[in-house]
Amino acid sequence: MTRPPLKLYLADPRGFCAGVVRAIEIVEQAIEKWGAPVYVRHEIVHNKHVVDELRAKGAVFVEELDECPADRPVVFSAHGVPKAVPAEAERRNMLYVDATCPLVSKVHIEAERHHDRGYQIVMIGHEGHPETIGTMGQLPEGEVILVETAEDVARITPRDPSRLAFITQTTLSVDDTADVVAALKARFPQIVGPHKEDICYATTNRQAAVKEMAPKIDALLVVGAPNSSNSQRLVEVGRAAGCAYAMLVQSAADIDWRAIEGVGAVGVTAGASAPEVLVEGVIESFRRRFELDIVRVVTAEENISFKVPRILRMAV
To answer: What are the catalytic residues (predicted)?
Structure first.
């Protein structure tokens, strides 16, 4: 049977960012250095495939530090943790490695600097997300006010409207965040922002690629996990850019082939915590069903890398 033709637009950049690569390397090197098991507080990154692979190598994933024995190493996830977590690890004399993405750590440092200057902080982020919890946990309770939308800005009551600074979660929608920042500046004209945008380069680049593809495609598939903020934002960006069908899939097994029946062009991208092997699986599934014409949509070149912590570079 002749396969129908299909144009597949492939976003570039897509998939793993430097912070995710570093976090995975930290867990792998910790296992190599100290042997299994190595405990990891929270999923190291939000992707089941990655977590399962690390679990098979000897990682044990837990939600809280009190689930970890004091005599085994523990790694803190790429999303960052409240200050109370490493403090508790030190109290228990635990060996720990912080895999917080350096770009998240930058936001933590920003928040502390503003706080030291007497500013109360407004954080733009998603309630309950590990990164938001970790960032808000850098400062005493009440010093960080969380807003998610422009509408939230009208409801907050800061201690002193003339002494405010804002920070953001690194994985937000660029456009949605701009709306919230505009609302903050309109209500609090003296609010201080970051010297450099908090939304990370990888989030920005992946969203830009989706915007570039959206007018050309009938359907968009984002490879990523349901609990991955940056992956969910790619779906939203695709829809906002005019793509009528935009769906998150964890792997090729999740593709709803009936929903894309009869389309002529499909876009494929992947969140920053999704490995390329899952993208390859999606492409191969399309290749079995269609005569593919693959078009790469290149919007940025990424060559950033981050070093692993010094404790992993030292001899045992």
So the answer is: 131 (proton donor)
Q: What is the mean pLDDT of residues 26-49?
A: 96
149 assigned ligand-binding residue = no
The edge-to-edge listing of strands for the beta sheet with 245-249 is 245-249, 219-223, 265-270, 5-12, 291-298
Q: Are 271 and 20 in contact (CB under 8 A)?
A: no
Q: What pLDDT is attached to residue 315?
A: 62
Please give the backbone phi and psi of residue 144, each rounded to the nearest 5 degrees, phi first: -125, 125
Is residue 194 assigned to a domain? no
Query: Do 238 and 287 fall within a single domain?
Result: yes
Q: Rounded to two decimals, what is the model's pTM?
A: 0.94
Report percent pLDDT > 70 for the chain.
Answer: 99
Report if residue 121 sits inside a domain.
yes
In a domain, 31, yes or no: yes
Please report the pLDDT score of residue 2 as a whole number: 86
pLDDT of residue 244: 86
User: Which pLDDT band, with edges at 50, 70 and 90, does 316 fall under?
Assistant: low
CATH number at residue 67: 3.40.50.11270
95 with 107, same domain: the answer is no
Report whether 273 belongs to an annotated binding site: yes
Q: Which active-site residues does the annotation give?
A: 131
Q: Say if residues 201 and 304 touch (Cβ distance below 8 Å).
A: yes
96 conformational bin, left if phi > 0, alpha if psi -120 to 50, beta if neither: beta
Number of H helices, E strands in the chain: 11, 12
164: CATH = 3.40.1010.20
Q: Is 129 annotated as a binding residue?
A: yes
Q: What are the beta bridge partners of residue 122?
A: 145, 166
